[in-house]
Amino acid sequence: MTSFPSAARKAGDPRVTVDNRILALRESVARFCPYGFRATWHHVLVNARVPRQLTDDPDSLCRAAAELVEARQVWMTYRDAFADRRRREKALGRRDPVFADRWYSWGNRLAYCPNPTVHPRERLVVVVQRVMEAYLSGRDVSVSCPACGSTRPDATPCPRCGVDTQWLSGRPVTVYRWRRIWQAV
Ligand SMILES: [Zn+2]
User: Fold this and answer.
1) Which domain holds residue 58?
2) pLDDT tens, 135-151?
3) Which alpha helices (H) appear in the chain, and where do they start and end?
4) 164 C-alpha vs ligand 1 centroid, how far in Å?
5) 93-132 per-position pLDDT tens digit
6) How far is the CA of 152 from the centre of ligand 1 (A)?
7) What b-and-e string marks burial along 97-106, b requiring 16 or more CB atoms within 10 Å of the CB?
8) What's the structural domain count of the chain?
């Protein structure tokens, strides 16, 4: 398995064939996908204007990889700061993270977009920064979208930007669905 840094480096390397570079870009997205894999993949292809025929614009792969690298760097800074804080809190006897810290258990999927073509369109780093600030502020992100700030009905993807935070709100949606599937068998 390739690490994110080496996959992203390969995706942006003009000495590598475009076929291998697009595969490396896919690997990079698999390792860092704030909207989930499919929506993040769609986001980087659209934002970097990656053409259907890769040889028409090989530099687009550099732009796509650079957007991912930049956003991941910011996310890692937040993640590391959070890990440090949790270590200090545990040392002081606070074992359970508070509600506002739930984003951490999502791994690198910070702002899940169930529809792969409906996601924020700004540069990824801007969105990552905004959602992280929203999570760390402790505000209720099931009412006010952490990515665009619009208010929306509870437990639905944001109609403006497509981000869905219902898992973050603590509702056991997956468990509920799984229970129904299980009982139907
Ligand atoms: Zn939104």
Assistant:
1) 4-184
2) 888 787 778 888 998 88
3) 4-11, 18-31, 37-47, 59-91, 124-137, 173-184
4) 8
5) 877 666 556 677 666 778 889 899 999 999 999 999 999 9
6) 8
7) beebbbbeee
8) 1
